[in-house]
Write a structure and sequence with these properties.
Number of strands: 4
Shape: globular
Strand order of the largest sheet: 1-4
Helix content: 25-40%
Structural class: mainly alpha
Largest sheet: 2 strands, parallel
Length: about 190
């Protein structure tokens, strides 16, 4: 580290010290835009006033939710996610977990269940990004991690080029829950 100090993946400036060695510097982490409050209790979509029926999640299945996002998916966040998924930087999940911890705080009795990655994608990437993120979040939050609760029923096509409606249709019946429904699952 003395010869080659760590640089932030997003701004390329020196990041941290020998002890912390983050992949995303504190300044870039502070630039992630948090979602404003109040928000819909079910889908997490910001709302301007008193809780009115939410148009975003009105058509969702009854047992789906609540959904939360830690930050807006703007160019900065998208770049960080691309480093995780396609750039071979799984350790960036430590920074993501710090941002996500407030969303799961107080989730007693819940477990973290990462979405299983297809065998081909896991082979190409060398890891499942959802599982790495869940492990980092487990370390910080203390919530248990269960990799055996979800499994793939079929292989959907890649989501990257699909519109939101097509993405939803693409994953219908692609995953199933394994075992009894004894846990509240955070995916």
């Amino acid at each position: 580290r003395w010869l080659l100090p760590g640089a932030c993946l997003l701004c390329q400036e020196p990041a941290g010290d020998d002890a912390t060695d983050p992949l995303i510097c504190s300044l870039c982490l502070s630039r992630f835009r948090r979602l404003p409050q109040p928000c819909c209790d079910r889908c997490g979509q910001p709302q301007a006033g008193p809780p009115d029926p939410c148009r975003v999640c009105a058509g969702w299945p009854a047992n789906f939710g609540p959904v939360r996002s830690a930050v807006w998916m703007d160019d900065l966040a998208r770049s960080a996610v691309h480093h995780l998924k396609y750039g071979g930087w799984p350790r960036v999940t430590d920074a993501f977990a710090r941002l996500m911890t407030p969303l799961v705080t107080g989730s007693r009795g819940a477990v973290l269940a990462p979405v299983p990655l297809s065998a081909g994608r896991a082979r190409r990437r060398g890891y499942n990004q959802a599982e790495r993120l869940a492990k980092s979040l487990t370390t910080i939050s203390g919530l248990p991690l269960r990799t055996d609760l979800l499994h793939r029923v079929r292989e959907p096509t890649t989501q990257t080029a699909l519109a939101p409606e097509a993405r939803q249709a693409n994953v219908i019946d692609a995953f199933a829950r394994s075992g009894a429904a004894e846990h509240r699952v955070i995916v």
